[in-house]
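Single Protein Entry

Contents — chain, fold
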Amino acid sequence: MEPLLSPDSKRIYVVDALRGFAVMAIMLLHFLEHFIYNSYPVASSPVMEAANQQFKDAFFFLFAGKSYTIFALLFGFTFAIQYRNQARKGRDFAGRFVWRMCLLAVFACMNAVFFPGGDVLLTFAIAGLLLVPCRRLKTSTLVVLSLFFLAQPLEWAYAAAQWVSPAWAPPSLAVAESYAALKTAVDTGNFWLMAWENLTVGQWASLAWGIEAGRLMQAPGLFLLGFVLGRQDFFLQNDRNAMFWTRGMLLSLAGAVAFYVVMSLPDLPAPVHTVFTMWHNVCFTGVWVAGFVLLYRLEYFRKVTVPLLTYGRMSLTNYVSQSLIGSLIFFPYALGLAPYCGYLASFTIGCAAMAGQIWFCRWWLERHRYGVLEGLWHRATWLGAGKAAKPEAR
């Protein structure tokens, strides 16, 4: 195996590994929070309680809101590559991409059955449609649009409204009430009731929380930024890109520190706090991505991260299956271990589940060209297309 590109140069290994890293972090975060099922044991001692809480706080600081943004960034990158590959053949990928987003919404519902609080894939499927009208825009225009969304204009509008009228409050989307109803459904131990509530109340709760937390604005900004990175080939390993990622890491680190200081200020209006939290997460993500890409130039780092390659190639399969695994372990309809697993125990279980997924990915990809759900997604995307129109694996 070549260290940077596959033998046929159809895949960029650093992107596969980075995607695998993001999905692993997302999975472990979900295991720590019991897949948004708020049920934990009473700590056996103050020392154990403190250890659990400190571990959870540290892990969330490092990855919560950052692993998702890596995933979103690479979503835009993938569209750039798919669009360019089809454009070289004289075809417009726009129609197929819209259909592909409809299929992603189906996978989002599949995952939501086992995940109270809905699923971010539905947000991706909706926000991803913005890439279609933007596909032919100049790179400079794409950057401006990306910065517009990342600036969180909705939150600034809320802040302005509160400044004019301090008694005004943003419209309530009943997110807390939705999550409470979802927990009640999970508590019953009735799988079918849980599945229905997850697919209805849960999907709404996910979208509503995305609006309140700033993610519905952040996602298209990240998609467009990833589109630019793909269009400009910034993930290829060369000296020009090494300089780009070095500068990006330094700027991102400075931004992450500065925005963290601001978001920690007392009495900050809620919309402004959301803005600086989102900016901090994006900058922190820049540190992760730039650091990973730069380290991937080192042979030792590439060897250490080999398991991430197959894990990243089957990111959709791993993302959906982790919800199934987690619900079977933690929820009352199955093993119901949530009330007996603190943060440290849940993390350990998540690592074991992840190891099983890594083994399965390697076994599967030795026998198949695509992952389980990736193969279904690929075949359904190109349903009715001639053989020549279908792209190579990526």
